[in-house]
Design a protein that fits this description.
The protein is 26% helix and 23% strand. It is an alpha/beta fold and 261 residues long.
Length: 261
């Protein structure tokens, strides 16, 4: 019988408040015999105009800590101001060997975690692939956090370049987005005519994603080409209006996130 102690990891991640949206990615880590995975999520989260209550903490192999947060929503700053009043207590109780942060490096919770981490190394996951200056105090928080981060998990070479331009000088790893093949898989062929082309998008509905260009391009395509959009965001109304104005009402469909409350 092995006496090797499992590596205790604490991940702080507001996207994991719902199992269907972000928490399922932790199930694989929880199945590993060499990891003791702890996950911290908000008790309630506000995004895109609605409140979401955290799913129960009964995920297999993962110890989920559901905690209240301060400043869950703020004008202009969106979700970047939230902090956990009980974070110090939780870190003292869990005593993680490593802290993983699935939050923006300029967020208050990233700054809070960096101050509260004790001696645990900090691993930060980053997606932003466009370098742009931030207003005070977010630029200062970003540079403070990145100069003290031990390892970066970057979604692309551009994302890695952004954090290095903002003060990160350590080691990084490039990791691609994964796909849950138990959820997403080709449907069996029904023998029906497949002469058309069906396009799909899953993600936030914001201007930066380029969905306006996709809808405009669709208008120039044959009628057999359709676009299915799944997601939510502040740009949804404008996208619906554009599709309608271009006569694409039957070829562009919108669907929100599954079981959000």
């Amino acid at each position: 019988m092995s006496n090797t102690r499992r590596l205790r990891v604490l991940s702080i991640a507001h996207p994991a408040v719902l199992r269907a949206v972000g928490r399922r990615r932790y199930h694989f880590l929880g199945s590993r015999s060499d990891l003791d995975v702890h996950l911290l999520v908000p008790r309630r989260w506000h995004q895109f105009g609605r409140w979401m209550d955290a799913d129960p903490p009964d995920d297999p192999g993962v110890t989920v800590h559901i905690e209240p947060i301060w400043l869950p929503r703020a004008p202009l700053a969106s979700w970047y101001l939230h902090v956990y009043p009980g974070l110090d207590r939780l870190i003292d109780a869990v005593r993680p060997d490593l802290i993983h942060l699935w939050e923006e490096p300029w967020s208050l919770v990233a700054w809070q975690a960096m101050l509260s981490r004790r001696n645990a190394p900090m691993v930060l996951e980053v997606d932003q692939n466009i370098l742009k200056p931030l207003i005070f105090p977010f630029e200062q928080i970003r540079r403070f956090v990145l100069r003290r981060t031990d390892h970066i998990l970057a979604r692309s070479p551009d994302a890695d370049a952004v954090v290095r331009a903002c003060g990160f000088a350590g080691e990084s790893s490039l990791i691609a987005y994964g796909v849950d093949q138990e959820t997403f898989f080709p449907k069996p062929s029904s023998g029906a005519d497949r002469s058309g082309l069906s396009l799909g998008y899953v993600g936030r509905l914001v201007v930066e994603k380029g969905l306006d260009d996709a809808i405009e391009a669709l208008a120039a395509c044959p009628r057999q080409v359709t676009l299915s959009i799944m997601g939510e965001g502040p740009h949804e109304a404008a996208l619906r209006a554009k599709a309608e104005s271009l006569g694409l009402g039957g070829r562009v469909t919108f669907q929100g996130w599954g079981n959000a409350k």
